[in-house]
Design goal:
The protein is mainly beta and 86 residues long. Helix content is 9%, strand content 36%. It has one domain: P-loop containing nucleotide triphosphate hydrolases (Rossmann fold, 3-Layer(aba) Sandwich).
């Protein structure tokens, strides 16, 4: 539940490949203020890859983008024109 309606993190359409292995396939994630998320899954499910993508260690494939506290991150990642958080 968002306590003030603000979106702090939004990831949309995240795809990450390592050669022929698709580690992340179209991941969407949105977190607002006051929210807590537990990211769980099997080994090799993509948890670490998702967090490394969020922190900029891994680049994402276009047209995905990451919005963090109102700023668009990633290179050459861009938010689509007119995009607003859900």
């Amino acid at each position: 539940m968002r306590t003030d309606g603000r979106v702090l993190v939004s990831m949309q359409g995240i795809v990450k490949r390592f050669g022929a292995v698709e580690a992340l396939k179209g991941v969407d994630l949105e977190l607002g203020t006051g929210e807590v998320l537990g990211l769980v899954g099997d080994n090799a499910a993509g948890k670490s890859t998702l967090m490394k993508t969020l922190t900029g260690v891994h680049q994402v494939a276009l047209p995905a983008f990451i919005l963090l506290m109102g700023l668009v991150f990633g290179s050459p990642v861009r938010a689509p024109a007119g995009w607003k958080p859900k």
